[in-house]
Amino acid sequence: MNRRELFQKALGAGAAVVAAGVLRGQSSSFNGPAGGSRGSTLVTILTGPFDTSSYPNGVRPLTDAPQFATYVRIQVNPGQQGKIAIGSSAMANTTGKAADSAFLELWPNWNGSTDSGRSDTFILSDPEWNNTINLADIYVWPEFAGEAPIVTAFQLA
Amino acid sequence: MTILSPSAASGPLTVSGAPVPIAASSTLVNQLSVKPRLGQWSKVLIGGPNLGNDESNAMAVLYPVPFGGQADAFVVQDQGGQNTIDLSQIYVYATIPGDTPMVQAFEYKNL
Known about the structure:
The complex is a heterodimer. By secondary structure, chain A is α+β, with helices and mostly antiparallel strands. Chain A has helices at 3-25, 89-93; strands spanning 42-46, 60-61, 68-69, 71-75, 84-87, 104-106, 121-125, 133-134, 139-142, 150-156. In chain A, the strands form three sheets. A four-stranded antiparallel sheet of chain A has the order 1-10-4-7, with no helix packed on it. A four-stranded antiparallel sheet of chain A has the order 2-9-5-6. A two-stranded antiparallel ribbon of chain A has the order 3-8. Chain A is globular. Mean pLDDT of chain A is 84; it is low at 1-27. In chain B, strands 1, 2, 5, 8 and 11 form a five-stranded antiparallel sheet that branches. Chain B has a four-stranded antiparallel sheet with strand order 3-10-6-7, with no helix packed on it. The A-B interface holds A 25, 34-37, 68, 83, 87-88, 90, 100-108, 114-115, 118, 120, 124, 126-128, 130, 132-134, 137-138 and B 1-6, 10-12, 30-31, 33, 35, 37-38, 65, 68-71, 77-81, 102-106, 108, 111.
């Protein structure tokens, strides 16, 4: 095999790797547009109180299957009394208190008496409005079982 | 495809007596937030490698939230959509040893 043939063989192997990657992306391993895309219409993909009670230890990812958003907002639900912990998969896998593995805690707003009634809120958006935030990578744990923060997520479809 | 994902450096950062870097080695991220942990009594200082525990060279001084309320925060994000913030160059100090300010960092990854 000469150098040219060897080079062509190496290129062929590289193409096979790329093709496998493309196939993985097209094999329904995620919902909606691919990560990093940017469509032209802002679509709401999550809204309302987010109930985690049916998940192990009360820790639930925002979506079960990967779905890529450009903006996500998690707000404590006014009138509820527990903190809300937000974290990565490390929080789902912990054997101790979930909040000790979180990257953020939101303070409850049970009667509007602190911070002029404003509810503590986590907001993350892609600075270029690309669909890069994998909702399945973000986990939520309400300190009090049964409480449900308000979750909103947008995607440019 | 490119996704914005929680960094492994995210989570409670234990600070014991001296400013500590958020990551031991170079770790580039797109977005960083540091907050005092709810219920803890430390003021939290943020700075670079020259951060002093007397607030010298501090980028931010965050007030604690021992009795509850929304925590003060230091937030920075690259608006150009790149991983440019090196967590090993961001130091955190808590005025009470053993307290654990909350670090939230997101990084772009290619899958």
